[in-house]
């Protein structure tokens, strides 16, 4: 029974964390005007993959391999977040140019480009307790990936 609970909890965590992190990212973007830079987008892509893998694991139980891949995708997002946080804190230089929000559709494309605010990758637009959004992604995604891996390992040992 404990193995079953660990597997179920791993599955719920694998589905819930990417959904919450992506939901928070879109809420901050559209609700509070914190538009993502290029490196912010890089962090979202593995979360999209993790969410799709977690949904597939729910549709195709037991889905242990899918959940391991989900944990890996969440970890990748966290590692990108750690790298991005280091760029924001000035610990190292980023490898990318920054992007800009292009404005609402229906505008003249040239005006939208010329009037778009520049979203810098090396400046944290918001922080909580001195930790940027990228830093929080590093912490939350890293902890989530480790928790999913631990629960899957526990589930596998109980099933053996």
β content, as a range?
5-15%
Segments where pLDDT lies below 50 for 5+ residues? Answer: none
Number of helices: 5
Rg, rounded, reads: 18 Å
Q: Say what oligomer this is.
A: single chain
Shape: elongated
Number of strands: 4
Distance between the termini: 13 Å
What is the residue-averaged pLDDT? 81
Task: Give the arrangement of secondary structure elements.
Elements lengths: L1 H31 L5 H22 L4 H25 L10 E2 L8 H7 L2 E2 L7 E2 L2 E2 H27 L1
Helix pairs in contact: 1-2, 1-3, 1-5, 2-3, 3-5
Please explain how this structure is put together:
This protein is mainly alpha-helical and 160 residues long. The chain has one domain. The chain is built from 5 helices and 4 strands, in the order αααβαβββα. The protein has helices at residues 2-32, 38-59, 64-88, 109-115, 133-159; strands at 99-100, 118-119, 127-128, 131-132. The protein starts with a helix and ends with a helix.
Keywords:
about 160 residues, mainly alpha, two-stranded antiparallel sheet, 4 strands
């Amino acid at each position: 029974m404990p193995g079953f609970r660990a597997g179920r909890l791993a599955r719920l965590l694998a589905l819930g964390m990417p959904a919450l992190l992506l939901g928070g990212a879109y809420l901050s973007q559209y609700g509070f005007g914190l538009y993502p830079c290029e490196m912010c987008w890089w962090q979202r892509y593995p979360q999209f993959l993790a969410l799709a893998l977690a949904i597939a694991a729910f549709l195709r139980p037991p889905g242990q391999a899918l959940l391991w891949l989900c944990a890996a995708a969440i970890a990748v997002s966290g590692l990108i977040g750690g790298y991005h946080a280091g760029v924001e804190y000035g610990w190292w230089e980023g490898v990318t140019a920054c992007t800009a929000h292009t404005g609402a559709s229906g505008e003249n494309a040239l005006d939208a480009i010329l009037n778009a605010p520049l979203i810098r990758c090396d400046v944290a637009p918001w922080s909580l307790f001195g930790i940027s959004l990228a830093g929080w992604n590093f912490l939350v995604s890293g902890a989530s990936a480790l928790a999913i891996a631990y629960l899957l390992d526990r589930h596998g040992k109980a099933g053996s």
